[in-house]
């Protein structure tokens, strides 16, 4: 039987243990150990290859990289890193989706790195960052300060199955990216030819729908010149005629390829949360899909025999300039981290020529480091996406990026279902994002945002 | 606790014994005014020490977060830096936010169907678990087992279950028409219905509480009713339901409280989007998005406070209504 004395002693001991736990060490105090939250557990081997190469250099020979592959809770869920920063257990460097950089910088979650550049490189930030694609640097810039260095990037294009197209009698030259850029009308015609229905009218094979895969509102917005924010008026422009055109495009396609039928088709052949091997493309039911170079790896892994090729995103009329958008990861420094030379050397190595030359060919994505692009140190199958980079850009670097993304995605769903007209959708979008952005009065995106990037030839 | 048929216990030496009719004789005790003796004080201190881990737990993990959340609801706060006082700004925004209205509508739709349906399912399960047969232990296990499946796993099972081409649900629909053309998860109302269906598989917990209530109903009452010629339906209507009403009230309140916080299933089956057309964007999901997706902890706290107030109001309303249907007269057999 537990006596009163035993119980109280045990309770006191437990409380003391809890208190001690709260005072647990916050990681190594030595600046030769850099705590790093890596890309993700599935790609931990690629992280290690870069780290090994870094350790083999003179600058990195005495540095230990303490890697932690912390799984993400979701696209924009920052609760883990916020908790770590508040609790004093944040890493010194963190691999983060660039899309979240401006929002995270705006809430004070990241340290600006301008001082590191000026102190250790002895050049201006502009001069130093000219080694990387401009749009990738813009995406890491908030209020005139730089918050990280870019790693990989990508672009969006159309992936198609040659067998399905050939079977429908389509001239494949139309899809050859070196010969032709598809127009929306041509894409629609091809989609009609590929699409077949069963006796009950359900889709058996489907050509294309613009809301599948990477067919986000942003994807088509870049082709229709729809801008989310105006630096001139310092306001959100989600109710512009260009944005209405984006949603009209969805509505127009949904009229011919009804949402309910297309949805039943996708739910059948690539249900939500299905494994990456279970897609309508791999089961040879879908002719074309909007995607990026990140598909190359899964194509090779799950459907190596399928003749899957890529071409440009469709344009309005023949001769129109091509367009795309690019995302990717970056290395950033969470608030409160030790801004040491060793940390800087690691960041510089990982995101620079050496690091990107190691990791990009393994990922299938494209480098952001211009020298790495020039040396063609990436998967050769991603070459078309490299050609897309000059006219590609990032999503607008705004402190309300997640809200804008969420709102646009929801409106797309409402328009293709038919519960909102394109006009209603853009009005609601403006109402949802405008007031939140108004809190950042006079906000200016980098002046270079949206301009074509100069990509050196090999 | 008369609610469960056990007579209220009177502190020893504090008040006169109860009369046979339940009323107390003599002057009412002076509650809280009596001076504590030295022994009482020592016992009180000791008692508090014994429960101190729970007191500390409640203060640290419940009282402080709730209080801080109420404070944050009047601020603009991202999780970093210091909160900025905005007064009632977050509440004003919430009432004008179309997604608050949409997510509230979705949640009420869910609650209004899932809660009554859940009570019926749980009651039917409890009646089945209460049958006087030899294999009753097996039945209880089988009926309760689905409640042990985590919501996370259940959601994935339902995604397959509702697959338009291969799902069991759609195969049944095929008997009557074209099941392959129906994707319940792709329809704004259908996805809510699917989540309501999922919730019913967790009815075992409520069923256990009903079962405890059923076991508490004296057999003699049924025997008397049978002698008077009451059939099974009449016994259920006139004996079981009235005597089960306190348990029904408990399950109703916990059911409503749970329904207002529906989250996991919707988050998984919609990949965290709440789509199609925000049809599965429940209030808690929208709150979560604001807190952790948009870094608006102040606004999310205001939404949490509003949810708490709505939950409280509904609980009070149910209590007020319960005076008409809850019967506390049963005694333990």
Strand order of the largest sheet of chain A: 2-1-3-16-6
Structural class of chain A: alpha+beta
- CATH architecture descriptor name of the largest domain in chain A: 3-Layer(aba) Sandwich
Total number of helical segments of chain B?
14
Whole-number average pLDDT of chain B?
A: 85
Pfam families (chain B): BPD_transp_1
Membrane topology (chain B): Multi-pass membrane protein
Subcellular location (chain B): Cell membrane
Family (chain B): Belongs to the binding-protein-dependent transport system permease family.
Structure description:
The complex is a heterodimer of chains A (458) and B (333). Chain A is α+β, with helices and mostly antiparallel strands and 458 residues long. Chain A has two domains: 33-154 and 327-391, Periplasmic binding protein-like II (D-Maltodextrin-Binding Protein, domain 2, 3-Layer(aba) Sandwich); 157-325 and 399-438, Periplasmic binding protein-like II (D-Maltodextrin-Binding Protein, domain 2). Helix content of chain A is 41%, strand content 12%. Chain A has helices spanning 4-22, 44-55, 79-86, 101-106, 114-121, 125-129, 134-138, 162-167, 184-194, 217-223, 241-256, 259-269, 294-302, 341-351, 353-363, 370-374, 383-388, 401-417, 422-438; strands spanning 33-37, 64-68, 93-97, 141-142, 145-146, 148-150, 152-153, 157-161, 196-197, 203-205, 229-230, 235-236, 288-291, 308-311, 324-325, 329-332, 366-367, 392-393. In chain A, the strands form seven sheets. A five-stranded mixed sheet of chain A has the order 2-1-3-16-6, covered by helices on one side. In chain A, a hairpin with a 5-residue loop joins strand 9 (196-197) and strand 10 (203-205). In chain A, helix 11 (241-256) packs parallel to helix 18, helix 11 crosses helix 19 (422-438) and helix 18 (401-417) runs antiparallel to helix 19. The longest helix of chain A is centred in the first third of the chain and has 19 residues, at 4-22. Chain A starts with a helix and ends in a 20-residue tail after the last helix. Residues 22-28 of chain A have low confidence and may be disordered. Chain B has 333 residues and is an all-alpha fold. Chain B has a domain at 97-290 and 302-325: Orthogonal Bundle (MetI-like fold). Chain B contains 14 helices and two strands, in the order ααββαααααααααααα. Chain B has a two-stranded antiparallel ribbon with strand order 1-2. Chain B is flat, with a radius of gyration of 25 Å. The chains are: A alpha+beta (458), B mainly alpha (333). The interface between A and B is large, with 54 and 49 residues. Chain B: Keywords: Cell membrane, Membrane, Transmembrane, Transmembrane helix, Transport. Chain B: The chain crosses the membrane at residues 51-71, 108-129, 141-162, 193-214, 243-263, 297-320. Chain B: It comes from Isoptericola cucumis. Chain B: Residues 104-318 form the ABC transmembrane type-1 domain. Chain B: It is found in: Cell membrane.
